[in-house]
Design goal:
- With 187 residues, this protein is mostly helical.
- It has 2 domains: 84 residues, RNA polymerase sigma factor, region 2, helix turn helix motif (Rna Polymerase Sigma Factor, Chain: A, Orthogonal Bundle); 95 residues, Orthogonal Bundle (Arc Repressor Mutant, subunit A), CATH 1.10.10.10.
- The chain starts with a helix and ends with a helix.
Length: 187
C-alpha cells in the first residue's frame, strides 16, 4: 500500500481513503465471507470495518500497517456479526450439514471437494474458523494471525490445531461427495 495515500487519508482526504478502500475491499470481503460463510453478513462486516477505519484512521500510528490494521478491523467486525447471529448460524450449519440423499452433485470433483471442505468449516466455531481462514486462505504465518486476532501465539496455534482436528472429525462422519459420470446421470 502506498504510504502517502494513507497519510493523505489520515489528513482527511476522502479521495485517498476511497482509493485505499477500492484496493482493499475485495480481499477483506473474501476473508469475511470465509469466516462468516454468508455473503450478506460478510458485506455488512466489511462495511462496518471500513466505517471504523474512516472514523479511527488518525489513530493509526504507522501508515505502512494499513493493510494489517484494516484486516484486524474486519476480523473483529466478523466476530461481532457472528455474536449477533450466533443462534441463526448454528441452525444454518445444522441444516447445511444434514444429509440429503435426493441431491446428486452435478459439478466437477474440485468443486465438490471444495464444498465438502467448506461444509466442514461451517461446522467449527468462529474462533477456529478465523485462524484457519487467515492462515490457509491468506497464507499468513501463525505469528501474524495471532497479532491480527490480538491473541497469544500459543492460543492461535491451539485454535488452528483444534479447528483442523474438528474438521477432520466432522469430515469422517460425512461421506465425501460422489460425482456421477454423464453415463450414470443418463441412466
Amino acid at each position: 500500500m502506498d504510504r502517502t495515500l494513507v497519510e493523505r487519508a489520515q489528513a482527511g482526504d476522502r479521495e485517498a481513503f476511497s482509493q485505499l478502500v477500492k484496493a482493499s475491499t475485495r480481499r477483506l470481503f473474501g476473508v469475511a465471507r470465509l469466516i462468516l460463510r454468508d455473503p450478506d453478513r460478510a458485506e455488512d462486516a466489511v462495511q462496518d470495518a471500513l466505517l471504523l477505519a474512516w472514523r479511527d484512521l488518525r489513530a493509526l500510528r504507522d501508515p505502512d500497517a494499513w493493510e494489517a490494521w484494516v484486516r484486524r478491523l474486519t476480523v473483529n467486525a466478523c466476530y461481532k456479526a457472528a455474536g449477533r447471529d450466533q443462534r441463526r448460524t448454528r441452525l444454518e450449519a445444522e441444516v447445511r450439514a444434514a444429509p440429503n440423499s435426493t441431491t446428486i452433485p452435478d459439478a466437477s470433483t474440485d468443486l465438490a471437494d471444495r464444498e465438502w471442505v467448506y461444509a466442514a468449516i461451517d461446522r467449527i466455531g468462529i474462533d477456529q474458523r478465523a485462524v484457519i481462514v487467515l492462515h490457509y486462505y491468506l497464507d499468513l504465518p501463525i505469528k501474524e494471525v495471532a497479532a491480527i486476532l490480538d491473541i497469544p501465539y500459543g492460543t492461535a496455534a491451539s485454535r488452528l490445531h483444534r479447528g483442523l482436528e474438528a474438521m477432520r472429525t466432522s469430515m469422517r462422519g460425512v461421506p465425501e461427495p460422489k460425482i456421477k459420470t454423464a453415463a450414470e446421470r443418463a441412466s
